[in-house]
Design brief:
By secondary structure, this protein is α+β, with helices and mostly antiparallel strands. The protein contains 6 helices and 9 strands. The strands form 2 sheets. A 7-stranded antiparallel sheet has the order 2-3-1-4-7-8-9, with helices on one face. The two termini are 25 Å apart.
């Protein structure tokens, strides 16, 4: 059975942190102790549970706000978090290591649509599909099955 999780960019909207904290099943993608201002801007993984305020808010308000990406997976929260944490940094061609904000749809889309198979396939390991909302550009669904499959979804 697959569940939906949101990889949420806490920096996208300061109001998200309070709502995330009230969800039953959520986890920060980073480890460590942070002050309150920093906690509000970190990326979080949130199970999309029908009836919870966060899921309702996402459905009603996310369109074009770039709050994050939705992942459908049979992995549990802990497994998905462990998997996604591998991708929070990237090595540039000259060797510099930088923050890789894959949870931002404006970063995820160029990565997945322009990356090589060696870069993209590991990201999708254990993930059935990913949905991103790009505002006026609409929603897209990404599936990796021996190659990238991209589908356009109706907005709304």
């Amino acid at each position: 059975m697959s569940d939906w999780f949101a990889a949420v960019d806490g920096a996208a909207d300061a109001r998200l942190y309070e709502v995330i904290e009230k969800t039953k099943d959520h986890s920060c993608l980073y480890t460590g102790e942070y002050d309150d201002d920093t906690k509000m801007a970190l990326p979080y993984l949130v199970r999309m549970t029908r009836g919870e305020h966060f899921a309702k808010l996402w459905s009603a308000s996310e369109g074009g706000r770039f709050w994050g990406i939705l992942c459908q997976t049979s992995l549990n929260m802990q497994q998905l978090r462990r998997h996604l944490r591998k991708f929070t940094t990237a090595r540039l061609p000259l060797g510099d290591v930088v923050l890789f904000r894959f949870w931002d749809p404006r970063v995820f889309v160029p990565f997945v649509e322009n990356g090589t198979e060696e870069e993209i396939a590991p990201f999708f390991k254990g993930i059935d599909s990913i949905i991103v909302d790009l505002g006026k550009q609409g929603r897209k669904k990404y599936i990796w099955n021996k190659g990238l499959k991209i589908g356009n979804l109706a907005a709304g």
